[in-house]
Predict the 3D structure of the following.
Amino acid sequence: MSEPIHLKSAHSLRDAIRAKEISAREAAEAYLDHIDAVDGDVRAYTDVWREPALARADAIDSQLAKGEDAGPLAGVPIGLKDLICTTEGTTACCSELLKGFRSPYDATVAEKLYAAGTVVLGKLNMDEFAMGSSTENSSVVTTRNPWNLDCVPGGSSGGSAAAVSAHECAISLGSDTGGSIRQPAACCGCVGMKPTYGRVSRYGLVAFASSLDQIGPFSRDVEDCALTLNTICGHDRRDSTSANLEVPDFTTSLTGDVKGVRVGLPKEYFTDALGVEIRAKIDSAVKVLESCGAEVVEVSLPHTEYAVATYYIICTAEASANLARFDGVRYGNRAPDTQSPEEMYKKTKSAGFGAEVQRRILLGTYVLSSGYYDAYYLKAQKVRTLIKQDFDAAFEKCDVIVTPTTPTPAFRIGEKSDDPLSMYLSDIYTISANLGGNPAISLPCGLTESGLPAGLQIIGRPFEEGAVLQSAYAFEQNSGIDLGVPTAIAESVS
Amino acid sequence: MSTITEKDVEYIANLAQLTLDDSLKARLVGELGNILDYIDKLNELDTDGVEPMMHVQPLTNVFRDDEIAPSLPRERVMEAAPKHDGEYILVPQILEGD
């Protein structure tokens, strides 16, 4: 028997649909059936759009039957993180406050993916308002890691990562403010990329920290990542922070070759905080790149140890401002029976926001409050300048920077949920790329002894996603690493 | 170095329009205190003369043409509002009196 549909990469499925070997409807049905089989264990979806997805797949099939071009990803089943606004279904950011919210418009990325011919299967679980590193802060459900159901999938885009790894969609979108795409991609053993700040329109992305947030794809290989970027990148007049720059065809960077590419290893990332097993995987990954012609150089990012502190001032300050809009007036679940606007705001927010969201709003309010602004917020903005300057100096000596994505593999559910600070530190290697605005990818670089994936991070200069993808693809094609189907769901896949 | 008291937590909760019960308040004093102690690490750095970064891209004012374009469909906007009369979103009375 030929390979089951849901095991195919997005590009090979797309090719088979184009060649009419498989219909878009068959592809959607195969994925929906697979969701039925495994999502009871994985819990990646918060809402599955069975009927709309099948109707959409039929529409793609009839376009193809007429010989029309149905788009570069025609018939490919995808999933969207629950903070990307869609007129179909709900967009709740996995918060009680927004439970049941139906967006009056589609996010730009959703429009672009529809235009490319994709079939959206549903919305994916996340930490409430993208605040967290484990998906345990979701008000809906805790997603479980497809490699070990007792472990977290990472976060905040844990549903998006787990769904791709568990073959519950071919591609998904997430958002990354301090590592929320790359860290779960590393934990779940898939490819996840945060493009350059400004590369992808955020119109219709519910904002967490506006100077850091960026939308990006999850996929099972680097080629699918490049194809998705081709679709979602570009300037949008509805997002004034989106960059008005040409978007290259990212698939042209997938040469398999890295001859002459200078790969920088920042010494500050390879300290005792890095687990020995992950370190060994990164060392072998660097050897693979070297054997493909890359030149390895040591670089320094001296302010690395200040990144987490800087980040938690800036992101909470911005979050406290962004989340002020959820006051029960225009959308969301207003607290009942209130007598004044002030009472309405307070009761709505206190009942609607979960513990981590309230904690961050309070921290952000504190660092912005009179008397503390200079000591915290202004100080953090200055250190952010130093972190950006570190990257600029390092990229004089190298073309890409290679690091681990996380210091350890996925941790156990509940292990860090009572200790916010230790949860924050799980993003220690991903946060700097957000502060600097750089593009960065995480891709699998093997399994640990305990059978959990390890992630390799490749960071590039702003707007040089192509260079990041080039190195990622060369590693993927030459490392011989293929994690295969995650162990915890393998039975349901055969 | 920085200590945050229960009174501070109450003060910022009020600014943020949050109501905290006593057990949550007590927990937050500890948790926010730990996070602030960690954040104090930044004081090790001399940042005199360093420009603060507001935004990572060198963008200044972004203008667009002032053109008339359709806005969101009113029915869908109203549908999302917790209370409305079809034309206006309704909130509890703001001014005292009749």
Remarks:
- Residues 374-397 of chain A form the longest helix (24 residues).
- Chain A has 16 helices and eleven strands.
- Residues 305-385 of chain A form one domain.
- The first strand of chain A starts at residue 45 and ends at 48.
